Amino acid sequence: MKFTLFGATGGVGAQFARQACEAGHGVTAVVRDPARMAYTHPDLAVTRADVMDPEAIGPLIAGRDAVVSALGHRGPGPATVCAQSARSITAAMAAYDVRRLVVVSAAGMFTDGDGPFTRFVVKPILQRVLRENFADMSAMEQIVQASSLDWTIVRPPQLLDRPRTGTYRTSLDTTVPRGMRVARADVADLMLRTLERGEPLRRAVFLAN
């Protein structure tokens, strides 16, 4: 399969690029600064483009089997990158008739399936601290869900730099009970499995170790 990947220099994106290439897929990583892409592979093409410009990224999406976005807010300033990039990516996909999209969001915005302590103590604190980031991700999800694309939203909890296990727990549309953490490598593993299997479509997947 051939993928276009946004957010390839982040933790989850870098893991996805590595795992996809090692599995024999082709990856076009669209980045702002190619020098930040440490991983190299014959099946990995790294190119510079502005994700916020649908006309710029359209040719990099054309003919691909799927688009993957692991973009997220970093550093100071207003958190708008997820929503703005979602508008651009979905517009470019529609223009070039590419239908499959996988995006990374966050489990912290949701409480369905959580126990009382997580629901009423942990999540309210988290949602206050990360309110701008979560607002941006929520807007991104609404844009993706309103599209006619074959989307999957992946919602991980706290992300850790740990080796891939491949034995994480998953749940559709509700949080994973006591699912507080997950390895970035396992998030990438789930994203790749989702694309290879072709499902679930138009659903949100929670996961946790």
TrEMBL record:
Q: Which Gene3D superfamilies match?
A: NAD(P)-binding Rossmann-like Domain
What are the residue boundaries of the NAD(P)-binding domain, all occurrences included? 7-196
InterPro entries from the xrefs?
A: NAD(P)-bd_dom, NAD(P)-bd_dom_sf, Polyketide_Oxido-like
UniProt-recorded Gene Ontology molecular function terms: biliverdin reductase [NAD(P)H] activity; riboflavin reductase (NADPH) activity
Designated name of the protein: Putative NADH-flavin reductase
Species source reads Streptomonospora nanhaiensis
